[in-house]
Amino acid sequence: MDRIAELHAAAVAVQQNAHAPYSHYKVGAAILTSTGKIFAGCNVENAAYPQGACAEANAIGAMVSAGELKIAAVLTVCDGDVLGTCCGGCRQRIREFAELDVPIYASDRNGVRATFTLEELLPYSFGPDHLH
Ligand code: ZN
Fold first, then answer.
1. In this structure, are strands 103-108 and 71-78 parallel, antiparallel, or unpaired?
2. Which of 3, 86, 88, 132 has the fewest CB atoms within 10 Å around its CB?
């Protein structure tokens, strides 16, 4: 199984655990790190809506909690006819830990539907390099 297939399998698996009783929009995200590890997260909504967290944010939290700081690839899975890509906030969250050429795969349960670089999704971005 190639790494993209592994990411897809991890994201599909975690999507099933998404807590989305309000939007009914379940998302799974999987991150491949520069050391070859995979971390996954799902969206976790809250009755106090702004307290909810995106799948990508939770995957990043799992990655950082494990001591990993370098993203090599991101894959998201969601349902529906409209292509689902990372929200603006998550594009910035990914920017903290990824180079601009890192691939971001937008998928559904059947497979990858579109591939972007971080720079395509977040052009002219602000990142850690601005603060050094
Ligand atoms: Zn998001």
1. parallel
2. 132
Phi, psi of 94 (to 5 degrees): -65, -40
Q: What pLDDT was estimated at residue 132?
A: 83
- Choosing from 45, 56, 68, 120, which is the catalytic residue? 56
Is the separation of the CB atoms in 82 and 112 below 8 Å? no
Whether residue 79 is contained in a domain is answered as yes
Distance 43 CA to ligand 1 centre (A): 8
Q: How many domains does the chain have?
A: 1
Angle CA 131–123–117, to nearest 5: 105
Q: Is 56 a catalytic residue?
A: yes
Range(s) of the domain holding residue 81:
3-127
Helix count and strand count (H, E) for the chain: 4, 5
Q: Taking all residues of the chain, what is their mean pLDDT, rounded to a whole number?
A: 97
Mean pLDDT of 4-13: 98
Which two structure tokens, joined as six digits, stand for 104? 């971001």
